[in-house]
Amino acid sequence: MINIYTFNIITLGCRVNQYESRSIAEKLVSLGFEEKQRPDGCDLCIINTCAVTAEASRKSRQMIRRAAANGSDPVVIAVGCWTQIEPEKAAELGCADLVCGVGDKQKICETALDLLKNRSKKTLTELSPVDVYDRYDHTKPESIREFLKIEDGCDGKCAYCVIPKARGPVRSRDPEEAFEEARALCKNGAKELVVTGIEISGYQFGLTDLLKRIDGIEELERIRLGSLDPFMMNEEFVSGLASISKIAPHFHLSIQSGCSRTLAAMRRRYNAGRAMEAVERIRKHFPRAMLTCDLIVGFPGETDEDHAETMRFMEKARFLHAHIFPYSPRPDTEAAGMPGQLSGHVKEKRLHEVEDLQKAVSFDLLNEVINKREPLPVLIEKHEKGYVFGHSDNFIEVKAKSDEDLTGRTVFALPSSAEGEGLCGKIV
Predict the structure, then answer these.
(1) How far are the Cα atoms of 212, 249, 285, 416 from residue 8, in angstroms, in the given order?
(2) Tag placement on the chain: N or C end, fewer CB within 10 Å?
C-alpha cells in the first residue's frame, strides 16, 4: 500500500495512553499512513492527553497549541482524558480540528482521512460513551518491552482523583482476546509484556488465571505488572503471583501516602499499616523484589506530623523509585472543596523533602546490589555508541560496554558502579 499521509502522535500520561497510542498508530499505518517521530511537516498530529494532575492538563493544552502552530498546517486531533472531562475548554483553544475523549479512540483513524480530504473551519467535538470495553488491536511491537492493556475504568471513590470521571467504570477485556494479543506481540519480537489498565486489580475475569496463561507463551521472557493497589496485595494474590515463573520481581504500588489519617481523607481502601504489610508480603514471596510507587504530598489538611509519618513510611518501605506529585485540585472532585488547602510553598517544600529522602534510599539500594557482587539478568533494549542498555528483572536500569548489538537478548551483567538512577556493569 502506498503511504498517502504522514502522522505523529504525542502521548502524555500513563501506560494505558501509551498502549492506546501505539494501537492507533498501528491502525493508521494499515490505512496507508506513514509515522514520523516528530510533528514537523506532518499532515496529521494526534495529541493523546492526560488529566491526572493540573500540570498534565496544562501540558495537554500546550501540546495541542504547539501541534497547531506547526508550519505544515496539519490536521490536529485531541483525544484522551483531559479532552473527555473538559471538551469545551479543548474546543475553545481553537487549535484542534477534532476533539474526542477516551471512548473508541480507534475511530479517529477513519475520521482523520475524512478531515484530511474535507477540512472544516470549526472544531468538531465527538465524545463516545465510556461504558463498554473498547477493543484495540496491537500486535506489532515497537520495542522489546510492550504494554498489554486488559482493563479500563475505575470504580474507586478516591477524593482527589478525576480519572473515574474521565475513564468511566471498570470494564475488562475478554481473556481470550488478551491472550491472543499477548501471543501475537511475542511472536513478533516482544520479550517482556507489561500488563496494564487503569485499575488492573478490578480485572473481572481472574487476573491470576490470565497471567498463568500468558506465562505459557514460549517466546515470552518476562511479565511485568502495571500499577497495583496495596489493598489487593493479600496473601492469596501475592503467593499466586509467586507461582508464575515469568513474573518479574518488581511491583509498582499506588501508595499515595504513608499516613493513615491522610489515606482516610483520600478515601483509600487501606491504612499505612496495611500498605506496609503489602510491602513486606511482596518481599517475603519475592526476596529479590524491587518496589516503586506513586505518592501525593500536600493533600488538604495534611499536617507537619502527617508529612513526617509519610517520611518515616518511605524510609522503612525502601522503594527503588517513587513518582512524587504535589497535590493539585481536579475538577469536580471531593478534595478540591476540602478545607485545609495548603499553599504552593508548603507543597513544594514537602515535595523536595520526600525527593531528597528517596534519592538517598535509591542510592543505598543500588550500592547494596553492587556490594552483593552478583550478576543481574538484564534484557537488552538498545545498543548505542559501544554500550548496551536494559533493565534487570527487578527493574534496575543497567548500562554495559559491548561492541556487539545484543538487543533482545538476556545477558548477565556484574554491577560495578551507580550512574544516575541505574547501574553500570560488565557483561559476564
Answers:
(1) 36, 35, 43, 40
(2) N
- The secondary structure element, H or E, covering residue 361 is helix 344-372
Q: What is the pLDDT of residue 122?
A: 83
> What pLDDT was estimated at residue 3?
56
**DSSP-derived secondary structure letter, 244:** S
- Placement of cell 526476596 in the chain: 287
User: pLDDT per residue over 138-191, tens digit each?
Assistant: 999 999 999 999 999 999 999 999 999 999 999 999 999 999 999 999 999 999
Q: How far apart are CA 163 and CA 171, in angstroms?
A: 14
Q: For the chain, percent helix, then strand, then coil, each to nearest 5?
A: 40, 25, 35
Q: What is the pLDDT of residue 106?
A: 78
pTM: 0.94
Q: Residue holding cell 482523520?
A: 112
Give the pLDDT band (50/70/90) at residue 1.
very low
Q: What is the pLDDT of residues 321-331, one digit of tens each?
A: 999 999 999 99
Chain centroid offset of residue 119 CA: 34
Q: Above 90 in pLDDT, residue 118?
A: no
**Residue 79 identity (one-letter amino acid):** V
* Cell numbers given for 322: 517513587
Calculate the alpha carbon distances from 227 to 195, 232, 383 in Å: 9, 11, 28
Structural contact between residues 44 and 77, judged by C-beta atoms closer than 8 angstroms: yes
| CATH code assigned to 373-427 | 2.40.50
Does the domain spanning 6-126 belong to CATH 3.90.1150.10? no
CA distance 339 to 394: 41
HSE-up of residue 414 (Cα within 13 Å, Cβ side):
7
Q: Where do the structural domains in the chain lie, given as residue ranges?
A: 6-126, 145-369, 373-427
Assigned CATH for 145-369: 3.80.30.20
67-72's contacts with Cβ under 8 Å and 24+ in sequence apart are: 67/10, 67/39, 67/95, 68/95, 68/96, 70/39, 70/40, 70/41, 70/42, 70/45, 71/40, 71/41, 72/40, 72/41, 72/42, 72/43
For residues 400 and 412, the answer to whether their CB atoms sit within 8 Å is no
Report CA dihedral (2, 37, 77, 136) to the nearest 10 degrees: 70
Phi-psi region of 103 (alpha: psi -120 to 50; beta: other; left: phi over 0): beta
